[in-house]
Write a structure and sequence with these properties.
Layout lengths: L11 H17 L5 H4 L1 H8 L3 H24 L6 H22 L3 H16 L2 H11 L5 H30 L1 H22 L16 H6 L1 H34 L8 H25 L2 H19 L7 H16 L2 H11 L5 H29 L6 H15 L2 H5 L4 H6 L1
Helix pairs in contact: 1-7, 1-8, 1-9, 4-6, 4-16, 5-6, 5-7, 5-9, 7-8, 8-9, 8-12, 8-15, 11-12, 11-14, 11-15, 11-16, 11-17, 12-13, 12-14, 12-15, 13-14, 13-15, 13-17, 16-17
Length: 411
């Protein structure tokens, strides 16, 4: 049964829903990577170790993992719009709180945890709101646009934070992120149409064991977890790494590290959409496995390349961002399509729980390896830390083989 779709036979209602939710996602994302964008500055100002910096970066994903199961699971019972409004409000409050009161490790950690609750209440609930409102035949393409907007939001986060902080200071950058999230609240509240919930049997509720028994869906979920470990590990540390490379070449010309990060996430957005399109035309699991192996190879190499000219390392980082994101929309779409329609919200909750739990671990493990190998001033330490990301994502293709063979061949 699920939610009743709107009358949108001409596709215009679909487009309005997708545009509204993609715009709102970008707005709520402005603050998500604000701390990683300024990680070097915060580390110096607050005298953080690399492990502590990793904890603050990863705390957002811990907050996400702790709440996403409940918040996304609720969307099988109530309109996802209500959950989204709650999440966007939490995102705005967390950014404003960080701007006004953060002054060290513990206060920053607390506000980043709340920011994770905001992301948990917006990202997957927003996808559920989209799926509930658009026609089935258009879902694979529209889902790819929505998931690609995550990368657009990430690029906006790096760009806006870097630009505003350099002129007005980091507190102003976080206030701007709070304003952006508040704008998302208004946008969804005013423009996203509601849907009426159809009656559901109690057996169709939040049945986690039933989701775990769906091997086809779980293969994508586990593959996504490997992908997110690498993705957020890399995104949390790439600005700091590029800053380290610049220190090795003080006279080097080229874009600033935050600019490279912004360009990288824009490249990743285009890659995600293209990957989703390739997954529709070709075999989805092979496309995802290829992307994981390619990004794993680059991860194993890029950290050891700090001695290369800065423009060359920046170009490698852009290529790395391309391959990291090539499978992102394809993995999420695969999980949604393989899910039991009556348990789609629960499946998406498990998808996000495992994925963003891995996203929480990635930045922390990266920072811990960096510290254990000698610190952020040692090139070999950066090499080992990036190689650890490659080792994790290389396990993704193994997860994709968990699906029943008949289903795998039909994808």
């Amino acid at each position: 049964m699920g939610f009743r779709l709107l009358d949108n036979s001409d596709g215009s209602a679909d487009a309005r829903v997708v545009l509204c939710l993609c715009a709102a996602e970008v707005l709520t994302m402005v603050g998500v990577f604000a701390f990683p964008a300024l990680l070097t500055d915060f580390s110096a100002e607050w005298r953080l170790t690399n492990t502590q910096a990793g904890w603050i970066s990863g705390a957002l994903f811990a907050g996400y993992a702790l709440t996403v199961t409940v918040l996304t699971g609720l969307t099988d019972r109530i309109d996802a719009k209500s959950v989204y409004l709650f999440g966007a409000t939490c995102a705005a409050a967390s950014m404003l709180g960080f701007a006004l009161t953060a002054e060290g490790f513990w206060s920053a950690l607390s506000w980043r945890l709340l920011s994770g609750v905001g992301l948990a209440g917006t990202y997957m609930p927003g996808l559920k709101a989209l799926v509930d409102r658009i026609s089935a035949e258009r879902q694979p393409r529209w889902i790819s646009y929505y998931t690609a907007s995550f990368s657009l939001g990430t690029s906006g986060s790096f760009l806006a934070t870097g630009a505003l902080a350099s002129v007005f200071g980091w507190r102003a950058a976080f206030v701007a992120a709070a304003v952006a999230a508040s704008a998302a609240v208004a946008l969804v509240a005013l423009l996203l149409p509601a849907v009426r919930a159809a009656p559901q049997a109690k057996a169709e509720g939040f049945d986690i064991p039933a989701v775990l028994r769906n091997r086809a869906a779980m293969s994508y979920v586990l593959g996504y977890a490997a992908h997110v470990w690498e993705l957020f590990g890399a995104r949390s540390w790439m600005v700091a790494f590029l800053g380290f490379v610049l220190l090795q070449h003080p006279d080097a010309a080229g874009p600033a590290p935050t600019t490279v990060a912004t360009l990288g996430t824009l490249v990743a957005m285009a890659s995600s959409v293209w990957g989703a399109d390739l997954a529709v035309r070709f075999e989805r699991r092979r496309l995802c496995a290829f992307a994981m192996l390619a990004s794993g190879v680059l991860a194993g190499a890029i950290g050891f390349c700090a001695g290369l000219p800065y423009p060359a390392v920046a170009a490698l980082m852009l290529a790395y961002n391309f391959f990291i994101q090539l499978d992102s929309a394809a993995l999420t779409t695969g999980a949604v399509l393989a899910a039991d329609p009556q348990r789609r919200g629960a499946t998406m909750a498990v998808h996000s729980l495992l994925g963003f739990s891995a996203g929480f671990c990635g930045p922390i493990a990266f920072g811990a390896i960096l510290d254990a190998a000698g610190g952020a001033s040692i090139g070999f330490a950066w090499g080992l830390a990036f190689a650890s990301l490659g080792a994790v994502v290389a396990m993704g293709p193994l997860a994709l083989r968990l699906a029943p063979r008949a289903r795998r061949l039909s994808d």
